[in-house]
TrEMBL record:
Mg(2+) binds at residues 59, 170, 172, 330. This is alkaline phosphatase. SMART domains: alkPPc. Keywords: Magnesium, Metal-binding, Phosphoprotein, Signal, Zinc.
């Protein structure tokens, strides 16, 4: 592995340097500028090689999402909001990423996550292959396949794992371990029959059979691992697989055969009760499909753990390895909230993601851990009009149009310019 010389950093973010004060005169703003410049000038770069790497991806968490979440965070504490910072906005290194896939101006999570993991752009819907692999085709996958950060960390003797609020077979987490030309091939019923290639295996199968070294796997999507002839351990309903294979049992039997300590969890209480000191491998599946939005999450012991809870337990398990670890953390449902035009859910999931960032900061040593906070792509969220400072970010604002006053939501999803689902020219107000 190459050396990594930066330690606390973020990407795809631009911080706004403001703070609250009772008197915001010229001295107030000049002090802010001076303090910021002084902090930059006296910052000492950490030139050590990183022992641990934590890649934290806020799916769909673009500039407008970060801005809105920052304001919401402040307003939830009774402040105006605009002067607030998200914790990762205070990291010493900040930048922007230019994201596009090999075939699309606007990429999807599969291609972007694959590019982050491997350093090689690919076609949209593809993961773990270069751009010469065509979407939906199984030919020449052995020649087109790529290794990435998870593989490199394992080769270096480090522990590896990921946590996500999506299905563990969904695009972003799957880019860490899968080789596929279709992100939707999450279970065997989704893969076309008679492809003529042994390499078109489903993503869940690849996770269990091809990545037995992975120490931590946590998220949703339990149904993709269980056959229709067996019960999903989360819902007790039938699973989705048609091959009569229970991949959870395959995972467990592999650990038994290797005489390795392992733990499984299907709810928050079971996860909390796991002893990380005696756990080499951890499988946590907390929903049959995606996990709940933070606003909807069952916070009782039998409910789902938070992203912060999963992140904390993952670090505790991975820290058993003296050689260090690589961990990927995804706030997946930020993206889903935007796709569904549910701004409130997307923003609260952004704040839940920020809590996971804080867990990483609190449970790792800055001298030896590289933390990267980024987004894989932005989204269609727009902050509309000229709202007054301190106005509720999820409320309404009065603003003049042609001499008239109209009520509009401050957060809008504009299909007129940025569309996800159809070509209808419309002006759509974000739902909460």
């Amino acid at each position: 592995m190459g050396t990594i010389n930066i330690f606390r950093t973020t990407a795809v973010l631009l911080a706004v340097v403001t703070c609250s004060s009772s008197v915001e005169d010229k001295a107030h703003w000049r002090k802010i500028a001076l303090d910021d410049i002084t902090r930059k000038l006296y910052h000492t770069p950490n030139t050590r090689v990183a022992k641990n790497v934590v890649l934290m991806i806020g799916d769909g968490m673009g500039i407008s999402t970060v801005t809105s979440a920052r304001i919401l965070k402040g307003q939830l504490k009774g402040k105006a909001g605009e002067e607030t910072f998200l914790n990762f906005e205070k990291f010493p290194y900040t930048g922007l990423s230019k994201v596009y896939s090999q075939d699309y101006q606007v990429p999807d999570s599969a291609a972007t996550a694959s590019a982050m993991m491997t350093g090689v752009k690919t076609n949209s819907r593809c993961m773990g292959v270069d751009g010469l692999a065509m979407p939906g085709e199984c030919r020449n996958l052995t020649e087109r396949r790529l290794n990435g950060m998870g593989h490199w960390a394992n080769d270096a003797g480090k522990s590896t794992g990921f946590v996500t609020t999506s299905r563990v077979t969904h695009a972003t987490p799957a880019a860490m371990y899968a080789v596929t030309t279709n992100r939707d091939w999450e279970d065997d019923r989704s893969v076309p029959k008679n492809t003529g290639s042994p390499y078109c295996t489903d993503i869940a199968w690849q996770l269990i059979h091809n990545n037995s070294h992975m120490n931590v796997i946590m998220g949703g999507g339990s149904a993709n691992f269980v056959p229709t002839t067996a019960s999903d351990p989360v819902t007790l309903r039938s699973g989705r697989r048609l091959d009569d294979t229970n991949l959870i049992e395959v995972w467990k039997n592999d650990k038994i055969q290797r005489n390795a300590n392992y733990s499984k969890a299907y709810n928050a209480k079971q996860l909390e009760d796991i002893d990380p000191a005696n756990t080499q491998y951890l499988l946590g599946l907390f929903a049959s499909s995606h996990m709940a939005y933070e606003l909807d999450r069952n916070k009782e012991p039998e409910g789902e753990p938070s992203l912060a809870d999963m992140t904390r337990k993952a670090i505790q398990v991975l820290s058993n390895n003296d050689n260090g670890f690589f961990l990927m953390v995804e706030g997946a449902r930020i993206d889903h909230g935007h796709h569904e035009t549910k701004a409130k859910k997307a923003l609260y999931d952004t704040l839940a993601f920020e809590e996971a960032v804080q867990v990483v900061m609190d449970t790792t040593r800055e001298e030896e851990t590289l933390i990267i906070v980024t987004a894989d792509h932005s989204h269609v969220l727009t902050i509309n009009g000229y709202p007054h400072r301190g106005n509720g970010i999820l409320g309404k604002e009065r603003w003049p149009i042609g001499g008239h006053i109209q009520h509009v939501f401050k957060l809008l999803l504009l299909k007129l310019l940025f569309q996800n689902k159809d070509s209808t020219f419309s002006f759509f107000i974000g739902k909460t």
